[in-house]
Write a structure and sequence with these properties.
This protein has 162 residues and is of the alpha/beta class. The chain has 5 helices and 6 strands; from the N terminus they run βαβαβαβαββα. Helices cover 43% and strands 21% of the residues. The strands form 2 sheets. The protein has a 4-stranded parallel sheet, with helices on both faces. A hairpin with a 2-residue loop joins strand 5 and strand 6.
């Protein structure tokens, strides 16, 4: 669903499972850190608000969005129930945007499909910096909030499947 029709921070608190005892890994790209730090802060705040202990949240950083693939892979080997991958790619004047977005999306999707822990896609891809700002706590809400809720729901889903 296009985010212009949905505020990324809106969710029904009653639809969120109890997150007490859940352990979350967050891998954050340093590139565009004014955006990725705000996304990370949103995710952490929402996790804590929904019952995840601050001590059960592990944050590691990688240089850029493409490195999220390796970072998320390594985090799945830690004592976490899910991994949130947070990055931001803003379109520029070269095809670099397309390669990074496609490669990162494919890599995270493949990782999500081939191992046993949910990997949450928190990469925002925008045409300009204003769109990124709008999605990290601006008028569109915070994608980090959405990622946190998704992580909680996917951990709950996995537990119901076991």
């Amino acid at each position: 669903m296009a985010s212009r029709y949905h505020n990324l921070s809106d969710y029904d608190i009653n639809s969120v499972p109890d997150a007490k005892g859940m352990k979350i890994g967050i891998v954050v790209a340093e590139w565009n850190n004014n955006i990725t730090d705000a996304l990370m802060d949103g995710a952490i705040g929402t996790l804590i608000k929904n019952g995840v202990a601050e001590s059960d949240i592990k944050v590691l950083r990688v240089p850029g969005s493409f490195e999220l693939i390796y970072g998320a892979t390594q985090m799945t080997h830690l004592d976490v129930d899910a991994v949130i991958a947070i990055g931001c790619v803003v379109r520029g004047d070269t095809p670099h945007f397309d390669y990074i977005c496609e490669g990162t999306t494919y890599g995270l999707a493949r990782l999500n499909a081939t191992q046993d822990k949910p990997v949450i896609y928190g990469l925002i891809t925008t045409n300009d910096m204003q769109q990124a700002l709008d999605r990290c706590g601006g008028k569109m809400g915070n994608k980090g909030d959405e990622c946190a809720i998704t992580a909680i729901k996917m951990i709950d889903f996995k537990r119901k499947c076991n």
